[in-house]
Amino acid sequence: MMKFYKEIISVNTIKKLPLGGLGGLLLLFSSCEKEIDMDYHTVEPLYVVEAGISEEGAVARISQTQNVTDEIGKSPVSDAQVVITSDNGERCILKLDSAGCYSSSEIKGVEGREYTIRVQIGDYVTESTSQMQEQFSIDDTYMYKVQMLEDEVVYYHVDVTGYNTDTIGYFYTLVTRNGKPYKWSILDNKGFDDMTAINVGCFVYCDLDKDNKDILKDGEEIAVEVRKIDKRTYDYLYALFIAERSSSNPIRNFTNPSTLGYFSAYHSMRQNALRFSKESLEFYDDLMESKKHKFEER
To answer: Is this model's pTM higher than 0.85 or not?
Structure first.
C-alpha cells in the first residue's frame, strides 16, 4: 500500500503558549511563570482529504479538523463514499481499510490519463482532478555537506532522468528517517543535459544548536522517494510550503471550499535506505572530484 507521509494540516492542542522575543527576555528576570488563559473561538470543522493514484493503486485518507482546545488534532472519517474515475470511463470505489483510510489496487494510474476523485459524506460532496505523469528513473543519490561561514549544511542529493526534459517537470521529494517522514521538497525544472538534480536540505551542524533534533545520528537509515507530479499538485504543495511559514491555509485543490488537502496522480520511484555516517560525509567539491576520477577510470 502507498504511504502518504506528509500531513496537510496539523492542528495541535495548545495549553500554554511559549513566549518569544521580548517575552523570552523577560523570563530571564522572572522567578515565576504565569499561565495565560486564551479565549479560542469555536469554528466549523473542515474535511481534510489526502489522496493519490499511482501505478501501484489508489489511496485516500479522510479526516476532520478539530478546535484548538480539543485533545485530538484531527478526527478520522470512516463513513465516506470515495470514487475515482478516469477520462476513459474507468471507475473504482475505494474501500475502507482502517479508520479514515480508503484504498484500492483495482485502479492504477496510466500515463497521460486524467483522474477525478469524488468524496461524499452525507450531503457533503467534493471533487478534484489530476493528470498521471510519465515514468522516470533515479540515476544517483548521495549525501554531502557545504561550508556556510562557521557551520556545515548537509544535503540529500538525487539525480533523476529518463523523462522528457523538453517540458517543465514537477517533482515532490520525500526523505525518510528510520521509516518516518523527515524532510520534503518540491522542484520545477526542465532538466539539464537530460537530467534533473534535486537537493533536499536536511540540517546544519552548528555549535550553538547542538540539541537540534534534525541532526542525524550515525547508523540511522535514510531513504528517499521521488514523485513526478502535475502542475496542479505542485501549485498546491508550493502554497503549502509558504503556508507553513505564515500560519495560513494553502490554496484550494478541491471543488468544495470546506475541503483541505489535495489529490495527486503521480509516478513514484524509491531508493533503498542508506545508513548515515558523519565521518563519511564529504564536502561537495571533494565529492565531485572523486566522482570525476571514478568516471575517468572506467
So the answer is: no
